[in-house]
């Protein structure tokens, strides 16, 4: 593997002071738990001070460490680059990596769908050129520079996810990434603890256009009520403006979206040509994300027809709408469908997930109840501000609720939804995900379809894990019985 950073190039980028022998790093890490031999360790300070782990990182094979002081337990000849501030040093690496590449860079933000869009872009563009993208949801003040610092010089397509929790966070990250194309998937009620209105959120999201390279493209959702704010900002930034959506007038226009139980089909027009593609995941929100991906692929020079085909091969990642079958009885063929959307939640993404649940048909005639049910396991939506309880209770009035048989609620905020539900739809109200996970074997029966959705902090992923383990528990019990 070729060197990503050498001692000389890292010193030049950070203007730090180096000690120890020469080295060449094949990667960049901030975590000793996952660090690999040959990587440069960056001693960031977060919950723990990374300097406390430098000795361990070097023992695990790190070729050097980026630090602001010589840590205890590290010898005077240890390979270190010493800077005034480690985060600023990481940012300098990121800017240097961006400057030395000729990659077409895409930045993605949005109140929902940015990680799924980034992953879809990774898959689609990765089939047409050397592609680099952020890991997981590395989209904050350290995630963006880390993603850039890890970018190989010969990258052809780069996808940088940019998130925010408060005003003023997106523009500096976009200026660091310097994208040729910036995507805003949608604007919705999220992080309302830090913003007074959706309009304020739209202005913050639109600040991603400030980092666009000259002649860059602003690609944004034209169907939302704040689209004019996004368009005005793109115009002020002298960007090429393209709205995508299903409403007439969108530059990237989906004139027909057919939603299916396992996939969707999108037909439309862009840049004077017609397109048709299948999205390998159910739900209108995934169809809209795929529309943006198709447009982005065209705009950065990828083959449009190949991209359209490859979108159909994409499937939702774990925690973001991934669908799987949990087998309860392999002999009888009894199972239930699980939709794992447990990574994050806000009112917009919650509504989208409920529509996905209604699109999947349960199976009747199996299990204890003889009638398959649609069951929603919903955890707290976090960072919604002063109106959080009203926003949770409002889910009871979502049109999709008419087709949902039972709702299980997790968390103090979701208690507001539980209280607003009609009696026939109420399941249980648990204070914590741990409590619900302990009762997971009572939640679903053969033939059911179960959606699990909530903010990461609600820990509803524990419920997903407990539901999955039912198949292992039943299989183990059956094996013991046969023996």
From TrEMBL:
Pfam families xref list: Mur_ligase, Mur_ligase_C, Mur_ligase_M
Intracellular or extracellular location(s): Cytoplasm
Residues annotated as domain Mur ligase C-terminal: 336-455
Binding sites annotated in the UniProt record for ATP: 110-116
Catalytic activity: D-alanyl-D-alanine + UDP-N-acetyl-alpha-D-muramoyl-L-alanyl-gamma-D-glutamyl-meso-2,6-diaminopimelate + ATP = UDP-N-acetyl-alpha-D-muramoyl-L-alanyl-gamma-D-glutamyl-meso-2,6-diaminopimeloyl-D-alanyl-D-alanine + ADP + phosphate + H(+)
Keyword Protein transport attached: no
Enzyme Commission no: 6.3.2.10
InterPro entries cross-referenced by the UniProt entry: Mur-like_cat_sf, Mur_ligase_C, Mur_ligase_C_dom_sf, Mur_ligase_cen, Mur_ligase_N, MurCDEF_CellWall_CoF430Synth, MurE/MurF_N, UDP-N-AcMur_synth
Stretches assigned to the Mur ligase N-terminal catalytic domain: 26-93
Keywords per UniProt: ATP-binding, Cell cycle, Cell division, Cell shape, Cell wall biogenesis/degradation, Cytoplasm, Ligase, Nucleotide-binding, Peptidoglycan synthesis
Gene3D superfamilies hit by this protein: Mur ligase, C-terminal domain, Mur-like, catalytic domain, MurE/MurF, N-terminal domain
Listed GO biological process terms: cell division; cell wall organization; peptidoglycan biosynthetic process; regulation of cell shape
Record-linked NCBIfam families: murF (TIGR01143)
PANTHER family per record: UDP-N-ACETYLMURAMOYL-TRIPEPTIDE--D-ALANYL-D-ALANINE LIGASE
UniProt record similarity statement: Belongs to the MurCDEF family. MurF subfamily.
Protein's name according to its UniProt entry: UDP-N-acetylmuramoyl-tripeptide--D-alanyl-D-alanine ligase
